[in-house]
Hints:
This protein has 9 helices and 8 strands. Helix 2 links the parallel strand 2 and strand 3 (about 55). Mean pLDDT is about 95; it is low at about 215. The relative contact order is 0.13. The protein is globular and about 45 Å long. By secondary structure, the chain is of the alpha/beta class. Strands 3-2-1-4-5-6-7-8 form an 8-stranded mixed β-sheet, sandwiched between helices. Helices cover about 35% and strands about 20% of the residues. The chain binds NADP nicotinamide-adenine-dinucleotide phosphate. NADP nicotinamide-adenine-dinucleotide phosphate binds near residues 17, 36, 71, 74 and 80. NADP nicotinamide-adenine-dinucleotide phosphate binds near residues 15, 72 and 79.
Amino acid sequence: MSDRDLRLGIVGAGKIGTTIARAAIAAGYDVAVSGSGPAARIALTVDVLAPGARATTTDAVVRHADTIVLAVPTHRFRELPHDQFDGKVLIDAMNYWEPIDGEDDELAAAPHGSSVVVQAHFPAARVVKSLNQLGYHDFEERRRAPGAPHRVAIAAASNDRQALDEVLELIDRLGFDAVDAGDLAAGITLEPDGVAFGAAYSADELASSLRLDPVRF
Length: 217
Ligand SMILES: NC(=O)c1ccc[n+]([C@@H]2O[C@H](COP(=O)([O-])OP(=O)(O)OC[C@H]3O[C@@H](n4cnc5c(N)ncnc54)[C@H](OP(=O)(O)O)[C@@H]3O)[C@@H](O)[C@H]2O)c1
């Protein structure tokens, strides 16, 4: 694995973005994080919540890493230009939740889940749905070394096989067993109301719950 592979970008310096940043720093990644404005506006937050990560702009995050976590409020991802993440592995960690995001007709009606809409907005990004399943407290408290007892699993879904494999490896490095959920449309099972959402399952339990999930589209 090259030094470049051990770089991670995170767009969104909020609750889940900084939690993922902490896990990535602990796993040896070189992490850059952005918010919606200049680096100075999130510098203290990043310093306190994810020491070792670098606060920067979204353009600089994109230059920094080939793998980027999108962790902005779901009602705001369309603020980012269509070509912002061209060629990048883009981990969609967002969940559409009406009480927080308001009513979004496109997302509410999306038959194959919100990540398919995200992929349409960023057509040349290699979108992988993942890191969205657990609340940030759970994400923080449940990460464990490989092989540790009671290790929890996180799933990933994508139409890009290579991107999916890279994210499965990242999940393991971040402290979770990784489960291949299938193509991007299967990401709907990881979203609110999906069988895997919020569940602290082992890899076997998660894989079996995904197989048993009735087709929702
Ligand atoms: N909270 C959780 O436990 C959790 C768990 C899994 C998934 N999620 C999902 O992850 C997403 C983020 O949730 P959160 O709870 O972390 O939100 P949050 O605490 O409100 O943080 C959102 C962050 O995104 C930044 N942001 C907003 N618009 C942006 C833009 N256009 N470009 C770059 N950065 C932007 C905000 O920066 P500014 O302050 O500069 O606007 C803020 O740093 C949501 O979709 C949520 O459903 C949350």
